[in-house]
């Protein structure tokens, strides 16, 4: 046993280098310099190279097989954390979907108007669910509100209004179809475009607002960001559509060890952990959002369809709002 300890693998030098690098970062004068070179993330490469080197040395029989316990323990621990986070993510997804599936909002476009706090969520509903019309703007009486209507493309061409002209009241809005490739755009948006003009809703209103506040929480080791779409009807009913994003560690553990300038608590702070992937939707992802728009569409009773499949109704009413000089 002691003989083995006196003859460690040469690859252990990468572990020693990781410790030395961390100590240098803990000392602010050298730490600040190393911080600009991303030294905290060097440990991910150093440790994994050390682990692989140890395996190679054992396989080549230049070192005792007992040293295999080091990489086995390291990768087993990393795999365990990764699997546990996948399980926690699946449990959270089940909870969110169960909550959202219970939300049913009575929406009749002939009697009600959808008013969105901002137009981005509504554009996804136009693109993915063929929403014919909606309003977007603030909910206060003094806020500017615009009316958006899906119309035959020929009307937009006849109007010859540039969507880039911010000074005109009437705008051609082509953003709903920009996420498609040119070929897909021809198929899904064929014969359709979206017009927008300042107007206020005349029917019963359903307000839809996206929360800018994100609540962060930890489920085991899994970091989660939660948001909510709030829906309020003219009758005073309120609904919440939940969504969340999570960031998993990588399947191959990539540890980081380093020190940084902390903005939360001004000072020099040292941290360690595993590098994580991008934040991704916990539930169904749609239109770059976190799954809440798909649940919102289901709650409103909208069905999946391309804009080209939607009959353009309500055009006459919309055209009445256009000033004579613009028609």
Characterize the biggest β-sheet: 10 strands, mixed
Q: How many DSSP-defined strands?
A: 12
Query: Helical percent range?
Result: 25-40%
* Number of helical stretches of at least 4 residues: 10
Low-pLDDT windows of residues: 162-167, 178-188
Radius of gyration: 28 Å
Strand percentage: 15-25%
Helix and strand run: HHHHHEHEEHEHEEEEEEEEHH
Structural class: alpha+beta
Q: How does the overall form come out from the CA principal axes?
A: elongated
Give the termini separation: 91 Å
Description:
This protein has 327 residues and is an alpha+beta fold. The chain has 10 helices and 12 strands. The protein has helices spanning 2-5, 12-26, 28-35, 42-59, 69-101, 119-129, 153-159, 182-188, 292-300, 315-321, and strands at 112-116, 133-137, 145-152, 171-173, 192-198, 204-210, 215-219, 222-233, 238-246, 255-262, 267-274, 280-281. Strands 1, 2, 3, 4, 5, 6, 7, 8, 9 and 12 form a 10-stranded mixed beta sheet that branches. It has a two-stranded antiparallel ribbon with strand order 10-11. Helix 2 (12-26) packs antiparallel against helix 4.
Short description:
The protein has helices at residues 2-5, 12-26, 28-35, 42-59, 69-101, 119-129, 153-159, 182-188, 292-300, 315-321, and strands at residues 112-116, 133-137, 145-152, 171-173, 192-198, 204-210, 215-219, 222-233, 238-246, 255-262, 267-274, 280-281. The protein has 327 residues and is an alpha+beta fold.
SSE order and pairing:
Layout: H1 2-5, H2 12-26, H3 28-35, H4 42-59, H5 69-101, E1 112-116, H6 119-129, E2 133-137, E3 145-152, H7 153-159, E4 171-173, H8 182-188, E5 192-198, E6 204-210, E7 215-219, E8 222-233, E9 238-246, E10 255-262, E11 267-274, E12 280-281, H9 292-300, H10 315-321
Parallel strand pairs: 1-2, 1-6
Antiparallel strand pairs: 2-3, 3-5, 4-5, 6-8, 7-8, 8-9, 9-12, 10-11
Helix pairs in contact: 2-4
């Amino acid at each position: 046993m002691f003989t083995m300890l006196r003859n460690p693998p040469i690859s252990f030098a990468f572990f020693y280098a990781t410790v030395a690098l961390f100590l240098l970062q803990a000392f602010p004068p050298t730490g600040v310099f190393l911080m600009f070179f991303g030294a905290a993330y060097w440990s991910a490469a150093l440790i994994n190279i050390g682990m692989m080197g140890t395996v190679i040395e054992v396989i080549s029989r230049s070192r005792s097989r007992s040293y295999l316990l080091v990489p086995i323990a390291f990768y087993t621990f990393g795999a365990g954390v990764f699997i546990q986070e996948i399980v926690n993510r699946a449990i959270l997804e089940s909870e969110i979907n169960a909550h959202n599936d219970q939300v049913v909002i009575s929406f009749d476009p002939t009697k009600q108007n959808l008013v969105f706090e901002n137009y981005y969520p509504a554009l996804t509903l136009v693109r993915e669910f063929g929403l014919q019309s909606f309003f977007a703007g603030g909910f206060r009486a003094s806020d500017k509100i615009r009316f958006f209507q899906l119309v035959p493309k020929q009307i937009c061409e006849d109007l010859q209004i540039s969507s880039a002209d911010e000074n005109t009241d009437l705008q051609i809005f082509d953003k709903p179809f920009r996420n498609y490739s040119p070929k897909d755009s021809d198929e899904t948006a064929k014969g359709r475009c979206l017009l927008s003009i300042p107007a206020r809703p005349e029917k019963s209103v359903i307000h839809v607002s996206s929360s800018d506040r994100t609540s962060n929480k930890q489920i085991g080791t899994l970091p989660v960001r939660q948001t909510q779409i709030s829906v309020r009807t003219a009758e005073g009913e309120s609904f919440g559509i939940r969504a969340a994003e999570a960031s998993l560690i990588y399947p191959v553990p990539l540890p980081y060890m380093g020190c940084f300038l902390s903005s939360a608590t001004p000072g020099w702070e040292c941290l360690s952990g595993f590098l994580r992937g991008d934040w991704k939707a916990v539930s169904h992802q749609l239109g770059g959002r976190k799954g809440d728009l798909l649940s919102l569409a289901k709650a409103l009773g909208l069905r999946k369809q391309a804009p080209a499949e939607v009959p353009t109704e309500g055009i006459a009413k919309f055209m009445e709002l256009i000033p004579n000089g613009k028609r």
